[in-house]
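Reply to dn_fold:

You asked what the input looked like. This is it:
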Amino acid sequence: MTKKVFIFIFFALSFFSCSNSKSASKKQLQETFTQLMDRLSRPGLSEESRYAIINNVAKNLYASNEYDKMNIFLTDWVENHPDDSYNAYWLYMVASAYLAKGVEPVAEYYYERILKNYQDLLIKDQSIHFSCLQRLIQISGSTVNRISYFTMLIKRFPKNVNITEMYVRLALEYEKEGEWKQALTNYSLFLDQPDSSTIQIAGIPDAYVNARKMVDFDNSPKNWTFESLESLEKAVKDAIVAYDWKALDKYRSKVNFFTMSWKTSAGDTNAQEEFSMRNFMRGNKIRFNAVLDDASNPNEAYLRTTGWNSYVNVWFLYFRKVNFPADPDLHGRWEWAGIYLGERL
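and this is what came back:
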């Protein structure tokens, strides 16, 4: 950088740092911008020197909360100098200024404009496109757009993100759009990651358990569901009366069926141990309440039963409505999903 350029930068910065003071008139501001544009338009100025001038002046305006002035300066520059290799960065600063002002739709417009119209650029080893995608995911209200952003992060920047987290977040976005095939594909990709069962994802508790339920249910025969709660309740009660353990084993869900105390989590490995009802029916007097428990609701139901063994006499059979929009024929049917041991807390 030449000595003249350095002196000019110092002058510009000095002026803008005091641009909010009473001594800085609009006329002086306009004169300084005129000088700046004149200097930048002169032939022979290196790209590095030009970048240094624009970047320092823009940052000084940004730091002084002169967002509008900075935006006008940078957008005019980009419009009049389409071949400037730093235009993606200048527009990124404009977008960030609008974001700082709380004008998120305009910020989103500029971030998207950078992704669609400008090649990626590294500033201090940081990808502009990557930064745009991060911001867009935070502010975009469009599920379709967020799907696109997550997909780009996975494909273009796999080393910059946690791929395990990206897959489950992408699956959730597809769920919102009702794109169940794509959601299940991404849940499967999530489960294939070595850290899927241990990862902690902010805002998504039990990510592994929920993904496992979705994928396992999709891969199962799904032949144990009932059309209604009434038909399920009757079938189970009839099987208990007849001591038909084979029928009860048939009626149980074949995916994620649990047997646990009320305090245990359904994700606990001990809660899903396989067993046959035969082991608990032979020689015992099994009884059930005539009506479902008061805690039942339109989506879940509990049938209190007794007599299964001398250690835990009371079992609540847990019925629930199938939540699987990926298959409209199954969604809303009922299944016997588990057993709670002991009196209800």
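Residues 1-24 have pLDDT under 50 and may be disordered.
Hope that clears it up.
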